[in-house]
Write a sequence for this structure.
């Protein structure tokens, strides 16, 4: 069965035109504060409510409107950033010539030329380098925050595939593990001319890293991608709870403000009744 690979374009947006309003409102009402004030607004619409509904509905509507506008603006900025990344160009080998294409059109099996200080457009296998001994220097600050350069080394079997004429002769198959979120482990094999060569993290160049102190390297794109872009969404779920904690405080404070005076008045009324002198009944 033929293997189908995903495209190389990325999308970090949370909404589209059709899902913005329902999904945006759902996200807003995941916050306890908004749920609480929605309940208060519903109660103010009942016939027994002493206040007009507009005094509660209007502030809640304004808060939701401002929050949705903020969400739309942030999602638009994410969309623009995605478009900027997807339209970045990289050179691939076609008919023994280097042809620039946007990152989003990069496909598994393309032989890519990465120049100095450029970012890797995908998770790719290191073939050859202009440095001696087939090494290159990689900066991974975008992934793990470390600014010190890391050394990567190509397999000696592929060092000769450096010029376009030689690189166009390369034929191989990459057999690797399923996609995962590990930055420091990798297992796989490179099959070249019926020869199986083991691969290690030294031959893996991850998307988001950049090439340093090396004129250029050649790599074929391979099919391993990481879900690093999902981390901010998961993080937002945890930080959202912390941001909503004032909602809990507001709820309990309002309940205390209602219950405490009522209880104090009830206690005072009972004490007053006990201290009141009794009047003897007339016979």
């Amino acid at each position: 069965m033929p293997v189908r690979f995903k495209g190389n374009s990325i999308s970090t947006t949370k909404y589209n035109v059709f899902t913005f309003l329902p999904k945006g409102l759902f996200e807003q009402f995941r916050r306890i504060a908004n749920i609480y004030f929605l309940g208060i607004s519903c109660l103010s619409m009942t016939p027994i409510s002493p206040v007009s509904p507009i005094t509660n509905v209007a502030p809640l509507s304004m808060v939701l409107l401002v929050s949705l506008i903020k969400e739309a603006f942030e999602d638009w900025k994410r969309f623009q950033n995605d478009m900027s990344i997807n339209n970045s160009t990289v050179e691939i080998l076609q008919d023994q010539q280097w042809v620039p294409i946007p990152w989003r059109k990069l496909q598994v099996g393309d032989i890519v030329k990465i120049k100095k200080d450029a970012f890797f457009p995908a998770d790719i296998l290191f073939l050859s380098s202009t440095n001696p001994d087939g090494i290159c220097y990689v900066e991974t600050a975008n992934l793990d925050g470390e600014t010190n350069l890391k050394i990567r080394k190509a397999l000696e079997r592929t060092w000769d595939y450096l010029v376009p004429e030689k690189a166009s002769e390369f034929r191989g198959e990459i057999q690797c593990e399923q996609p995962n979120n590990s930055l420091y482990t990798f297992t796989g094999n490179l099959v070249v001319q019926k020869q199986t060569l083991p691969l290690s993290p030294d031959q893996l160049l991850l998307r988001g890293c950049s090439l340093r102190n090396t004129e250029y390297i050649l790599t074929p794109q391979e099919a391993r991608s990481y879900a690093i872009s999902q981390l901010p969404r998961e993080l937002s779920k945890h930080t959202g709870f912390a941001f909503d904690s004032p909602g809990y405080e507001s709820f309990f404070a309002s309940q205390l403000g209602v219950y405490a005076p009522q209880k104090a008045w009830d206690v005072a009324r009972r004490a007053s009744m006990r201290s009141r002198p009794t009047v003897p009944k007339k016979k």
Notes: Helices lie at 20-28, 32-44, 54-86, 141-144, 164-167, 231-275. Residues 89-229 form a domain with the Calcium-transporting ATPase, cytoplasmic transduction domain A fold (CATH 2.70.150.10).
